[in-house]
Write a structure and sequence with these properties.
The protein is mainly beta and about 290 residues long. Helices cover about 5% and strands about 45% of the residues. A 9-stranded antiparallel sheet has the order 7-8-9-10-22-19-18-13-16, with no helix packed on it. The longest helix has 6 residues. It starts with a strand and ends with a strand. Bound molecules: 6-O-phosphono-alpha-D-glucopyranose.
Length: about 290
C-alpha cells in the first residue's frame, strides 16, 4: 500500500523506496527517508529531537512544523493574533486525513485538512479552511499549504514551513542571500534591518535571522550532501540554529542536537498575506536532494 494510516500517523511509501511519515497532530512531517541522485542509499533527511514528545502534548521539535496564522512569539502585532501562542495553532491541532490525490508509480500525494475547531475558536475568531498537500517523488518532497477564506472580509496571516534539514550545522552553507535585508533576532540591542554581506550564510554561531524578500530558490550545501529548496508565494526566509550558546536552554532539544540540523524556513512573515474573501492562496516548498 502506498499510503498507510494508523491511529495518529500517516505513512507514504514511494515504490522506489522513499517514505514520508507524519502525525495527524499538526499534520507534522516527522520523517523523510530518501536516496539522492548521487547517493542512492535511503537515509533520513530531516532532524527530530530524541527528546521531542510525539504524543500531541506539545509541538514537535523537528521535522516540518507549519506556522499559521502567525509566525514567532507573542506579543503578536496583529490584533486577531493576540491570543495565539508561538507560531500559531496549525502545528498543535489534529488534522483530518482527507484522501490520496495521486498514486501512479512515480508520485504519491495526499491531502490533509483543518477547519476551525472549538479549541481554535477560543483563541482565533476568523473563518478559514486549510489543506496540506504532501507529494513524494523519488528524490524530492513538495508541501503545499492551501488557505481558503470563506468569509467576505480579507484574511491576513503569516505562513511558514519551519523545516529542520538534517545536516552538520558546523559545515552547512546557504545561498543566495547576499545583499538581502534581515532582522537578527539574536541581537537584543539592534532590532532594525541589517544587510547580509556574506556570499554564503553559515550557522556556526547562534542564528535567528528573518530575511525579507528573498529569491525563493535556495541551495543548502555541506560536504557530501545538499538540498535545493524551491518555493512559491513564500517571499521571506528564516534561518535558525541555537548552537551551544542557546541550545541547552531548549528543554525538548536533545544534547548536541543543534549540531545535526539547520532550520531553513520559507515563509510569508514580513507583513501579512492579504487574502480576499472567497479566495484561496497556496504556499509551496519543494525540497530536492542532490
Ligand atoms: O521553539 P519553537 O516555538 O519551535 O521556535 C523555534 C524558533 O522558530 C523560529 O525560527 C524563530 O525565529 C525562533 O525565534 C524560534 O526560537
Amino acid at each position: 500500500m502506498p499510503v498507510e494510516q494508523t491511529n495518529n500517523r500517516v505513512i507514504l511509501k514511494h515504490p522506489k523506496g522513499p517514505t514520508v511519515e507524519l502525525l495527524l497532530y499538526g499534520s507534522h512531517i516527522l520523517s523523510w527517508k530518501s536516496g539522492s541522485p548521487t547517493s542512492p542509499e535511503i537515509s533520513e533527511r530531516l532532524f527530530v529531537s530524541a527528546k521531542a514528545p510525539l504524543d500531541g502534548s506539545a509541538p514537535v521539535r523537528g521535522g516540518i512544523p507549519i506556522a499559521f496564522p502567525a509566525f514567532a512569539a507573542p506579543p503578536h502585532a496583529h490584533p486577531e493574533h493576540s491570543k495565539l501562542g508561538i507560531h500559531g495553532f496549525a502545528r498543535s491541532e489534529v488534522w483530518t486525513f482527507d484522501k490520496v490525490l495521486q498514486d501512479d508509480g512515480s508520485v504519491v500525494s495526499i491531502r490533509l485538512t483543518l477547519s476551525p475547531t472549538p479549541k481554535i475558536r477560543e483563541v482565533y475568531t476568523r473563518e478559514f479552511q486549510l489543506a496540506f498537500v504532501i507529494t513524494l517523488e523519488e528524490f524530492q518532497l513538495t508541501n503545499d499549504l492551501h488557505v481558503t477564506n470563506p468569509a467576505s472580509e480579507t484574511l491576513e496571516f503569516h505562513a511558514l514551513y519551519h523545516t529542520y534539514i538534517r545536516s552538520p550545522s558546523k559545515d552547512v552553507l546557504i545561498t543566495p542571500l547576499k545583499g538581502k535585508k534581515y532582522i537578527d533576532k539574536t541581537d537584543k540591542e539592534f532590532q532594525g534591518l541589517k544587510t547580509e554581506m556574506r556570499d554564503a550564510v553559515d550557522v556556526k554561531r547562534w542564528t535567528d535571522s528573518v530575511y525579507e524578500d528573498t529569491p525563493g530558490e535556495y541551495e543548502v550545501k555541506w560536504p557530501g550532501g545538499g538540498v535545493s529548496i524551491r518555493t512559491r508565494n513564500l517571499k521571506d526566509l528564516v534561518m535558525w540554529n541555537p548552537q551551544a550558546e542557546f541550545g541547552p536552554k531548549i528543554v525538548d532539544l536533545e544534547e548536541g542536537g543543534w549540531e545535526k540540523y539547520v532550520c531553513v524556513e520559507p515563509g510569508y512573515v514580513r507583513g501579512y498575506v492579504q487574502l480576499e474573501g472567497g479566495k484561496a492562496w497556496v504556499g509551496t516548498q519543494t525540497l530536492i536532494l542532490h
